[in-house]
Design a protein that fits this description.
The complex is a heterodimer of chains A (about 550) and B (about 180). Chain A is of the alpha/beta class and about 550 residues long. Chain A has 11 helices and 17 strands. Chain B has about 180 residues and is mainly alpha-helical. Chain B has one domain. The chains are: A alpha/beta (about 550), B mainly alpha (about 180).
């Protein structure tokens, strides 16, 4: 079956696909937005309920552990053999197959990357075993799109980070109030000579457009916001996108491949619809926003005689440089109340260890969280402490509201060997070869981890912690911050797309999701992914209006 | 019996999207729709849960309703773990007899505690644990008991939200 041709088909109705659909539909392009998951209403979720939270380590409700239609494979290095994994298994990267994507459930950290992130190679130099590179765009070039993303989606924060790049406008919303534990960390940071500031959050801290303000429920990170205070494509972009009449959203559409015409030019996608029927969606432009672990799969599954190694993969870079963040989490126990029993959780941050640190490359922003959830906290114990019985209850009583967690989304080194490719043997329920993931850490990542473990313990002790709890680094694997698999670059030999997300040598195929990131930065990636999606959309609309791809001249 | 590496987590979230047909029929037709376990199994489960979350100046697992919570979760969406529970009950009983020459339910509270400590570290005769390891069964009981005690009262394991009150967790939409 084939549908009518549209101007653009977008694969993936998540954080980035939602931005591109919004921008293109408002510019007058006719768009189809495909999503493999369902569209859920708030009432479909069991709300503010820790039993369904990813804080306990399982996947988001829309892609739950009993859904075995989406297997994958995982190994750490080429010396290991691949293991088949399902969504409830470790090493299965968090995904939310649902309209809105993972952003529906995110912790709402909405940082801009710092100017040095765009000059990673210039800042840190080359490193053995790493494909570290500079970005083909600068912070200043992306700034207007950070601004647009913040004002379109709604970001609350304060302009207090001395390492941040220049902002054209202040934050559209004031920062969330700090909790007692955040204030302890802030004071300690100042005493140690650091420069603390409030974290930027994608949360309506006041009424924002037609959205209700945050009610400070402690079930925030890992939960959909039942009142819509969280800034997501569903709350901030989708209603006006659909209201243009130019965008059709099709859910439970599992895309198989990018199709080509007789000359090898992409001309749409084929997908299995809700009833399992293979359907063609012809389009002048094909835009992939399926995530850093699914977009490369789609490209590699789009093989033809013009693309024998998969689309965009002439130089074997599709799926390479798979990254996430590597950083410890350190919990400090206090003798005084650190949290008033409310959310959202993140409070105070420092960037003083973001750039050059002694003995290793990279860094990250340290930030505090003071909220706790009862089941998750039952597993937060110093080594050797009783995990059950009366001693468990006593600890839970003593510290549930007297703890502060510091975390750093530390910048992991990109590695060529860390990759997504497609399995020659394992297929999903639709018969499509699945992603298989190879991921291990770089030696630098372990140094970074231990350095921050020490710094964060020091900061917590200065703040009054009587004891600190942390764990050594694991062996790798990616999760919610998966990124980097179709990197931006000027040189087609060492990247997949140009600075606008356009696949090298395939002018009507764009990638707009976390796959684009050249380096992971040392902060949560949501805002940067969305700013890049605004940046790519701006380029597409300008080219369209200039007559490219059969576009209508303005 | 495969156990998820993410842990022994009751995926309640899965229930609305999981096929539910057949689950109700699989329940024993004794008239008690909640019944999976017989009376002895229920007493054993209660004692195990109470060891994990014992009564002190605050309610223990039995008073909170944790054993019923576990039975309900097994019945409504995790029938696959029922066999592990049954095997674990048999093995607990076998180890109690190996170590104390007495049924588990005849042991004193402190004797039960010491047996669970040995279960946790797999310091019990391996022959008593042919189909589930002592460590795995301990972890299952431990994790499920705490999930019951600390979850939303609507699931039945945190009666009167007493475990939340104990730690100062306050859900203003439950009040």
């Amino acid at each position: 079956m084939s549908r009518d041709r549209v101007d653009a088909v977008i694969v993936g109705a998540g954080a980035s696909g939602g931005v591109v659909a919004h921008e293109l539909a408002h510019a007058g392009l006719r768009v189809v937005l495909l999503e493999r998951g369902p569209q859920l209403n708030v009432k479909d979720f069991q709300l503010h309920d820790e039993m369904i939270s990813n804080s306990r380590g399982h996947l988001f409700p829309a892609f739950n552990g009993l859904d075995h239609r989406h297997p994958r494979e995982f190994r750490h290095t080429s010396a290991d053999s691949f293991q088949k994994i399902f969504p409830e298994d470790g090493y299965y990267p968090l995904l939310a197959a649902v309209v809105g994507g993972g952003q529906l459930f995110y912790g709402a950290l909405m940082w801009r990357f710092l100017p040095i992130d765009f000059r990673a190679k210039s800042t840190y130099g080359t490193m053995e075993g790493s494909t570290l590179d500079d970005w083909p765009l600068t912070y200043d070039e992306l700034e207007p799109f950070y601004d647009k993303a913040e004002y379109t989606l709604g970001v609350a924060g304060e302009d207090g980070d001395p390492f941040a790049g220049k902002r054209s406008r202040p934050f559209p919303l004031p920062p969330v109030d700090l909790q007692p534990g955040d204030l302890l960390v802030k004071k300690a940071a100042q005493k140690l000579g650091y420069q603390p500031f409030s974290v930027p959050l994608g949360i309506a801290t006041q009424k924002f457009k037609d959205r209700n303000p945050c009610v400070r429920h402690p079930c925030c990170n890992g939960f959909i916001c039942e009142i819509g205070a969280k800034s997501t494509m569903v709350t901030a972009l989708l209603p006006s996108t659909l209201a243009t009449g130019n965008c059709q959203l099709i859910t439970e559409a599992v895309v198989k491949e990018v199709t080509t015409d007789r000359r090898g030019r992409p001309n749409g996608v084929s997908y299995f619809d809700k009833s399992g029927k293979l359907t063609n969606q012809p389009a002048r432009l094909v835009i992939l926003a399926a995530s850093a672990t699914e977009t490369p799969r789609l490209l590699l599954n789009s093989r033809s005689r013009w693309f024998p190694k998969g689309m965009g993969n002439q130089h074997d870079w599709v799926g390479r440089n798979l990254m996430d963040h590597i950083g410890p989490s350190v919990v400090g126990l206090f003798n005084e109340t650190t949290n008033d029993g409310i959310g959202p959780g993140p409070g105070i941050a420092i960037d003083d260890f973001y750039g050059k640190n002694p003995g290793f490359a990279g860094g990250g922003v340290i930030y505090s969280r003071t909220e706790a959830l009862p089941i998750a906290f039952a597993n937060v114990r110093p080594p050797g402490a009783p995990m059950w019985g009366k001693a468990h209850k006593q600890f839970q009583r003593d510290y549930f509201r007297r703890q502060v967690r510091l975390w750093v989304p530390g910048e992991a080194r990109p590695k060529f060997e860390n990759r997504v490719d497609v399995s020659p043997t394992v297929r999903d329920a639709w018969g499509i070869p699945v992603s298989r993931i190879t991921h291990s850490l770089h030696p630098n990542d372990y140094q970074l981890y231990e350095f921050f473990r020490g710094k964060m313990a020091e900061l917590l002790k200065e703040a009054g912690a009587t004891e600190v709890i942390s764990r050594p680094a694991g062996k790798g694997g990616v999760d919610a911050h998966q990124c980097g698999t179709c990197r931006l670059g000027n040189d087609p030999k060492t990247s997949v797309v140009n600075r606008y997300g356009q696949v090298h040598d395939v002018d009507n195929l764009f990638i707009v999701d976390g796959s684009l990131l050249v380096t992971a930065g040392g902060r949560n990636p949501a805002l940067t992914i969305q700013a890049l999606a605004f940046w790519a959309s701006d380029y597409i609309v300008r080219q369209w209006k200039a007559g490219s791809w059969g576009g209508r001249k303005a | 019996m495969t156990l998820s590496r993410r842990g022994f987590i009751f995926l309640l979230s899965a229930l609305p999207f999981a096929p539910k047909a057949g689950l109700a029929q699989s329940v024993s037709k004794s008239g008690d729709q909640n019944r999976l376990f017989d009376d002895t199994e229920r007493r054993l489960l209660g004692s195990l849960c109470e060891q994990i979350f014992p009564k002190d100046e605050f309610p223990g697992a039995i008073e909170l309703g944790v054993p019923g919570f576990i039975e309900r979760c097994l019945r409504e969406g995790h029938a696959d773990w029922t066999g592990i529970y049954r095997a674990g009950f048999r093995s607990t009983e076998a180890s109690s007899r190996s170590v104390h020459q007495k049924a588990f339910l005849e042991l004193s509270f402190d004797e039960q505690t010491r047996l669970l400590e040995r279960m946790q570290t797999a310091d019990l005769p391996k022959a008593d644990w042919p189909s589930v390891t002592a460590k795995d069964f301990f972890r299952l009981i431990r994790d499920h008991t705490l999930q019951g005690a600390y979850s939303h009262p609507k699931y039945g394991g945190n009666r009167n939200k007493a475990a939340w009150d104990m730690i100062g967790y306050y859900d203003f939409w439950v009040e």
